[in-house]
Amino acid sequence: MDIYSENTQQIINEVGKVIIGKNHIISKVLTAILAKGHILIEDIPGVGKTTLALAFSRVMDLEHNRLQFTPDVLPTDVVGYHLLTKEEGDYQFKPGPVMCNLFLADEINRTSPKSQSALLEVMEEGTVTVDGITKEIPKPFTVIATQNPIGSIGTQMLPESQLDRFMIKLTMGYPDIRSEVNMLKGRQTANPLSNLNKVINQKEILAMQAKVEQVFIHDSIYDYIVNLILLTRKNPYIELGLSPRGTIALTNMAKANAFIHNRDYLIPDDVKAVFREVTTHRILLKPKARLNDITIDRLIDTILQQVQAPRVG
Hints:
Structural class: alpha/beta
Shape: globular
Oligomer: single chain
Radius of gyration: 20 Å
């Protein structure tokens, strides 16, 4: 575990060279990758969402592709298509950009629901089906999707079924003054992305993901996780609570958090550390919550306080 713990810290440090002052965001993205999850980043343009994905692809030696989602993007632009070639006299598969290790879906809310849904099978099953033929996506595979919450003209909100496919949702926010000054200094002579060092390769990522799966969970921790989830379904201000897929996502993220902190067993703090990022986009509030100025963040705090964490001996 010590070797892997050193690797995770090196990854965070390397990505932190270009995403300055956001180590907590970098850590959450790395946690989701190790948990075999997908990440949704909702924020205004220009705060480093794309740079974050490119930095991870370089530091973790991941083959990456980027697709700018616009209203005219078709499902075949995402997953690929078959083309009749003169030379072969047969249909040849032309893979779409999703056939990679790290797929950046930029401004995913600006394309049609049909194109958005093209990602569903890829994210859930790790395969693409074109003209009835199913092909495996390279492993490891992670989707980092971005969307801009400001300016709703020409956008299509992601339905709950697709939001549920994302393991976590993050918001990067503006950097603080010192971080922004350091960012300016670092970009005067060269692009900081070109100075990043590779820390691990794809084989090592798969080995780390396998180690995450082996993290031990005591029965009391299982009960703790399920009790937290049940409160999201029973709260009088919540219309839609977490699904069983959300329960699995919370468990896997907590296991990856334990792994990053050099432990092969789960403690309640691992669950608390990732609970907000896993649940925010999965909770739908009732109208009376808005009338009473009750936010999702406030409800999450309340739920964490209501469920007693088990003692770890």
